[in-house]
Specification:
six-stranded antiparallel beta sheet, three-stranded antiparallel beta sheet, 16 helices, globular
Length: 410
């Protein structure tokens, strides 16, 4: 565990010192390496980093150190989709099958793009056997998604599409533009803003990448509580260390312990390829394009990207105000059929309280497994990014404390 003397590097604008204090507190509670960045009105007001980029060495975490941010990638993919919609190249209310005819199989012909964005498409899982080569090569896993039968009547309820969100939307991007999602994201978002953010990591960036420390799964009485690790961003802060769970969580924990449950199949599948372990430190899991799950980004990149969705950043604005307003209308709210817990989504983005209880209505973004978070706030003209390499189980409180600190400064 990194001790309390971990030096905090970087800057905070006057009045944002509480964010530095919250960031330092995360290291006293065990952060290994991390960074936090906040933009306001198109300029950085918090830019902090500290610790180590690898658990077994002395490589320091730098200002631009990138790391796998898991489902925080979903926000980047959603931005790409909304840019296509703004240009009239994609109709969010049109059926997915209008752009991807094979998707109509097994009763999916009428599912609109908007249902995918809101996790209402009813295809959160891939039941067919899929290899890692299928995932890396894209077309094999896309074909499996197209053939998948809905799990519930499409549109009738919502459930977290942990992987399929990215494959469906990524295939739409590929079919409309002729480019894979990683290249489209680079051209449309990352390159204009100069972001250290990739979907499909180039080999020459690999040496800069922070090494993830997967969550530890203990045995004994705490094992049941820690089974909820398969539900990124949702476990109430502070509950895991004690093992005391509120009653509504017992059903979720039971599902997490059941290898045949929908929750386990969604979070670890297809074909058990996506457990949260050391595989995420290997080149195939970095090189593949997983538009829902394996974006590699720095905290600076996430904050700068989100800032550019709600205002100009060095002359670049990614989304129009009316697009943001429409994307943040609540489209799914209540008990999630996959996680069995409350969740709330707009069109491609997680909404408060999923991005932090302190974030106000209108804020939008996405958390990632292990603790990362990126979001925007159009009312306060904020972009926020937090990235770290020590993964913790569920919603562990590190990003939550930083978000609370940011809003205490406004």
């Amino acid at each position: 565990m990194t001790g309390p003397a971990t030096p905090i590097r970087g800057d905070t604008a006057p009045g944002f010192e509480p964010v530095r204090d919250a960031f330092a507190a995360n290291f006293r509670s065990g952060d290994l390496g991390a960074a936090c960045c906040v933009y306001r009105d198109g300029r950085p007001v918090v830019d902090l980093w500290a610790g180590r980029a690898e658990p077994g060495g002395d490589r320091a975490w730098e200002a631009d150190t990138p790391v796998v941010v898991f489902s925080s990638t979903k926000g980047a993919t959603a931005i790409c989709i909304h840019r296509l919609a703004e240009r009239g190249e994609l109709d969010l209310e049109a059926p997915v099958a209008e752009y991807w005819p094979a998707f109509a199989a097994a009763g999916k012909a009428a599912i609109p793009v908007s249902a995918v964005l809101a996790h209402r498409a009813a295809v959160p899982v891939v039941d067919a056997a899929v290899s890692l080569d299928d995932v890396v090569g894209w077309h094999g896993v896309a074909a499996a998604v197209a053939a998948q039968r809905p799990v519930w009547p499409p549109g009738s309820a919502h459930g977290y599409h942990a992987r399929t969100f990215g494959w469906i939307l990524g295939e739409l991007i590929r079919r409309i533009t002729g480019n894979p999602v990683g290249a489209f994201f680079a051209t449309e978002v990352a390159d204009p803003l100069g972001l250290d953010f990739w979907i499909g990591l180039p080999a020459d960036v690999e040496p800069r990448l922070a090494e993830l420390v997967p969550p530890r799964l203990p045995t004994g009485p705490l094992a049941v509580a820690h089974a909820a690790a398969r539900i990124p961003g949702l476990m109430p802060a502070g509950r895991l260390l004690t093992g005391h769970l509120p009653a509504p969580w017992l059903r979720t924990v039971a599902a997490a312990l059941d290898p045949d449950s929908l929750l386990t199949r969604v979070m670890t599948g297809p074909s058990a390829l996506f457990n949260y372990d050391q595989r995420w430190n290997t080149r195939p899991y970095h090189a593949a394009e997983l538009p829902s799950s394996n974006g590699v980004a720095s905290a600076r990149a996430m904050a700068r990207m989100y800032a550019a969705t709600v205002g100009e950043v060095d002359g670049v604005r990614l989304l129009r105000p009316e697009t943001v307003a429409a994307a943040t209308v609540v489209r799914s709210d209540g008990t999630d059929l996959v996680t069995l817990q409350p969740s709330r989504f707009g069109a491609g983005f997680a909404l408060p309280p999923m991005i932090g209880a302190a974030a106000p209505p209108g804020a939008f973004g996405h958390p990632g497994a292990g603790g990362s978070l990126g979001f925007a706030d159009p009312v306060h003209h904020l972009g926020f990014g937090y990235a770290m390499n020590r993964m913790r189980l569920g919603r562990d409180g590190r990003a939550e404390g930083l978000v609370r600190a940011v809003y205490s400064c406004l």
